[in-house]
Design goal:
Blueprint (H helix, E strand, L loop, with lengths): L4 H28 L8 H24 L5 H4 L2 H25 L9 H28 L7 E6 L3 H12 L5 E7 L8 E3 L2 E5 L4 H8 L3 E4 L6 H13 L3 E4 L6 H5 L4 E2 L2 E2 L1 E2 L6 H37 L5 E7 L5 E7 L11 H13 L18 H8 L7 H7 L3 E3 L6 H5 L14 E3 L12 H13 L3 H16 L6
Parallel strand pairs: 1-2, 1-5, 2-4, 5-6, 12-13
Antiparallel strand pairs: 3-4, 6-9, 7-8, 10-11
């Protein structure tokens, strides 16, 4: 799946400006400190390597701060703020790396840091805001995109009107496709229905479509995701404007077109390569995690043993990738019950899955508080009860990041579209966990998982792992 052309241009431009800024900062620092600018061969090689690596790190930080989102790129104040913030964060990483390897020019000179800050902020802001932004907005720009609206109802008409009359994003709306409206019927401002979803392949080819925006009224999850799959199969960039996916812009920063949040549903990374990288990372970081956390794991085990009767670890059958069952490990946080199966919780959970809230209560995570031990209450709130799942990760039954595994009776009661969350290995943490955990309804949790699967990448995994740490430390949304 290809990114929009302007994103490639921005990333390449940023990369070379950063290299330029590193070099100029070094030269100016040497000049002011009256040092020779001639370096030994090994120093030159080290400098080039450090600058290249740090430039790549800066690009990731730019991505994290939304500098490649269209609405940020086209807004002067928001873009300048993000540039300054990104350079600051990047400098923190640069200084840490420089002290770690005793790299000269940075670790030994505050002037270098000051010079780089000035060069990079001024150069990147000037190139982006003054030059590239104006190129993008010019009438004859090669970055303008040909857009198709899927859905000719109220929502689709609103999206088309906003993009046409606030023509700020360089979009050319070519028409609508809708299965329920006659071909040729005018929807808004001379834009007509040009076909049906079944004709999408021919329409993409004939009209040279760059992007599709799904904005269909009164659609169910299954049909919406079928259309997304069809667009992805045809390697068409696709975004969603639908109340069914409204949880995504509520919990994440997404691009907005003329103030309308649009959810990106196009895979950006080769799935095979991503999965190999993911598996290798899972094994390495899980082993490191177990070693580093071993004192904490031992302490929790002792406290559980002395707080109540029963085993330290709780094992249960969960459903993993492709509906396959596996043994799931957690620290026990509840008193043991006599029944082999908690019928009360099952009934509450099924009501929650169907209606969104169990028994009309406010809580959206179904638990029986009376069974939770004092240490169980602590480890549940901080998610430390999940730490034994690192064993599941090493075995290959789980991943560090992914949808949460479900219970067998939950899986049996899933709607067909909800089973999509089982397309990948379940995870110890995921988008749902960092988005409020118990504050998110069941359907919204599934939508968050599906969004993760469609946008799965090493970069997204890293963001979610980093966001998991404060969620655990401050017990956000935990029950």
């Amino acid at each position: 799946m290809n990114l929009a052309k302007y994103k490639y241009l921005l990333a390449i431009s940023d990369f070379f400006i950063l290299i330029f800024s590193f070099s100029m900062a070094q030269r100016l620092t040497f000049l002011l400190l009256d040092k020779s600018s001639h370096l030994k061969l090994e120093e030159t090689i080290l400098s080039i390597a450090v600058y290249l690596i740090n430039s790549v790190i800066f690009i990731f930080i730019f991505q994290f701060n939304n500098l490649y989102k269209l609405n940020i790129f086209l807004t002067r104040a928001a873009q300048l703020t993000s540039i300054i913030k990104s350079i600051f964060y990047g400098l923190m990483v640069l200084i840490i790396i420089s002290f770690s390897i005793k790299f000269p020019f940075i670790a030994d000179s505050r002037l270098y840091v000051l010079h780089f800050s000035i060069f990079s902020i001024v150069a990147i802001a000037f190139i982006r805001i003054v030059i590239l932004r104006n190129i993008y907005l010019s009438k004859n720009s090669n970055f303008n995109r040909r857009v198709l609206i899927i859905g000719g109802g109220k929502t689709g008409s609103l999206v088309a009107c906003k993009l046409m009359f606030e023509n700020y994003y360089g979009f050319k709306i070519l028409g609508f496709i809708d299965d329920n409206i006659k071909k040729g019927e005018i929807i808004v401002n001379n834009l007509e229905v040009i076909g049906k979803v079944t004709e999408l392949k021919e329409i993409i080819s004939g009209y040279r479509i760059d992007e599709a925006i799904i904005a269909i009224d009164n659609i169910n999850y299954e049909r919406l995701l079928e259309i997304v799959d069809k667009c992805n199969d045809l390697e068409l960039n696709v975004r969603i404007s639908s109340e069914l996916f409204q949880i995504i812009p509520q919990k994440m920063i997404v691009e907005t077109y003329s103030g309308i949040p649009v959810v990106d549903a196009s895979p950006r990374v080769d799935q095979k390569i991503s999965l190999v990288f993911k598996r290798i990372s899972d094994i390495i970081f899980s082993i490191i995690g177990i070693i580093l956390l071993s004192p904490l794991l031992l302490l929790i085990a002792v406290l559980i043993k002395f707080s109540s009767k029963g085993p330290i670890l709780y094992t249960h059958t969960r459903i993993g990738k492709d509906g396959k069952p596996f043994k799931f490990y957690k620290f026990r946080s509840m008193n043991i019950i006599d029944a082999g199966r908690d019928k009360k919780r099952e009934k509450m959970m099924l009501a929650f899955m169907k209606n969104g809230k169990p028994n009309n209560k406010k809580d959206t995570k179904v638990i029986d508080d009376s069974r939770v031990t004092w240490i169980g209450n602590i480890i549940r709130k901080t998610s430390m009860d999940e730490l034994p799942q690192l064993i599941n990760v090493i075995i290959g039954e789980m991943s560090l990041v992914g949808p949460r595994p479900c219970l067998p009776y939950e899986y049996e009661n899933y709607d067909e579209w909800q089973k999509r969350r089982l397309k990948v290995l379940p995870g110890c943490t995921g988008l749902w966990q960092v988005s409020g955990r118990s504050e998110v309804s069941f359907k919204d949790s599934v939508v968050l998982d599906i969004y993760y699967i469609n946008n799965m990448s090493p970069w997204l995994d890293l963001q979610l792992i980093l966001k998991t740490v404060p969620v655990m430390l401050f017990a956000r949304g935990g029950k």
